Amino acid sequence: MELDLFADPPSAERRPTPHPQPPQGLPLYIGTSSWSFDDWRGSLYPADAKPADYLTYYAQHFPVVEIDTTFYRIPTPSMVDAWYRRTPDGFRFAAKIPQVITHEKVLRDCQAELQQFTEAMSRLGEKLGPLLFQFPYFSKRHFATPQAFVDRLAPVLEQLPAGLRFAVEIRNRWWMTRRFLDLLRAHRVAFALIDHPWMPPVQELVRQHDVITADFSYIRWLGDRRAMEAVTQRWDRLVADRQQETTAWVGVIRQFLARQVAVYGFYNNHYAGHSPGSIALFYDIWQRQPSTSP
Q1: 21: confidence class by pLDDT, cuts 50, 70, 90
Q2: Average pLDDT of the chain?
Q3: DSSP 3-state of 169
Q4: What span, in angstroms and rounded, lies between the C-alpha atoms of 257 and 146?
Q5: Are 72 and 98 in contact (CB under 8 A)?
Q6: Is residue 210 part of a domain?
Q7: Do 77 and 120 form a contact (C-beta atoms < 8 A)?
Q8: Percent helix, strand and coil across the chain, each rounded to 5?
Q9: 22 lies in a domain?
């Protein structure tokens, strides 16, 4: 039976329904960008859930989450320890690298902040997943050429601590050059694929480039923030039909898994209106899509 993906959220009397689980045995980790949404009460969380308990409930449904708060400040040790305690064995945390590094200093003189951040996140131990350099769109005032960005990025990647996984996200489509991807590959840093208006569709990217630069892939389904907020200000149900895009992504992810590449993927509410619903759609299409690969 197919999921009623566009149904109204459950009433306050209903308990949340179980969400689809990833296929057994595959290194496929699909979650959401952040977990702190009151609008998920009654669908993902119990209607009377307290914000302090959201993460615990979240981890009952999904194996991984992307932490958004680390973009705004380096977490304290007590914050990181609380994340660890509130999640079960086997859970994974990905996290955004602080904006002071990617947006304010733009990779200049940021080694102290990067070290402080990685040391804090390392307290998660075996639960720590990839750490994301999320860069904004840069005008030519910042970087006159794609190579100028590569030259700025290279020394930072050379100094990354061993034993941790990193990914790099760009939003300038003409920066997709062989030198950029080869730099990531040389340091085993993943190229972060994003579903976003400023970047090419995934089918175009994988046709033109080998986008696998590490032993894992990092995917973010972001959508068009401005367009979505013109449609809804609530994040309790799907309001956009993403079946066509999701079908394409499922096919690409199957290809990655066939190459023995682990996949971390994160849905944003702005992609279709309700991240948990987007995950449900993903697994619904996964189960229905014929394939001889994983």
Answers
A1: low
A2: 93
A3: strand
A4: 30
A5: yes
A6: yes
A7: yes
A8: 40, 15, 45
A9: no
Range of the domain at 136: 28-288
Burial code (b: 16+ CB inside 10 Å, e: under 16) for 221-245 equals bbbbeeebeeebeebbbbebebeeb
- Summarize pLDDT for 214-265 with one digit per residue, the tens: 999 999 999 999 999 999 999 999 999 999 999 999 999 999 999 999 999 9
Q: What percentage of the chain carries pLDDT values higher than 90?
A: 89
Whether residue 27 has pLDDT greater than 70: yes
Q: Residue 169 pairs with which residues in a beta bridge?
A: 134
What is the rounded CA–CA span in Å between residue 182 and residue 219? 19
* Nearest CA among 156, 175, 152, 179 for reference residue 166: 156
Dihedral angle, C-alpha 73, 163, 218, 134, nearest 10 °: 30
pLDDT(1) > 70: no
How far is the C-alpha of 282 from the C-alpha of 277, rounded, in Å? 9
The domain that holds 112 is classified in CATH as: 3.20.20.410
Check whether 4 has a pLDDT greater than 60.
no
274 within a domain of the structure (yes/no): yes
Q: What is the number of structural domains in the chain?
A: 1
Asked if the model's pLDDT at residue 126 lies above 50, the reply is yes
Q: Are 45 and 10 in contact (CB under 8 A)?
A: no
Largest Cα separation within the chain, whole Å, is 57
With bands split at pLDDT 50, 70 and 90, how would you rate the model's confidence at 25?
confident
Q: Map tokens 């970087």 to a residue.
A: 143
Asked if the structure places residue 188 within a domain, the reply is yes
Residues 25, 8: Cα–Cα separation, whole Å: 33
**What DSSP designation does 106 have?**
T
Q: What is the pLDDT of residue 12?
A: 34
d(CA 122, CA 80): 9
Q: How far is CA 217 from CA 165, 166, 255, 280, in A?
A: 11, 10, 11, 20
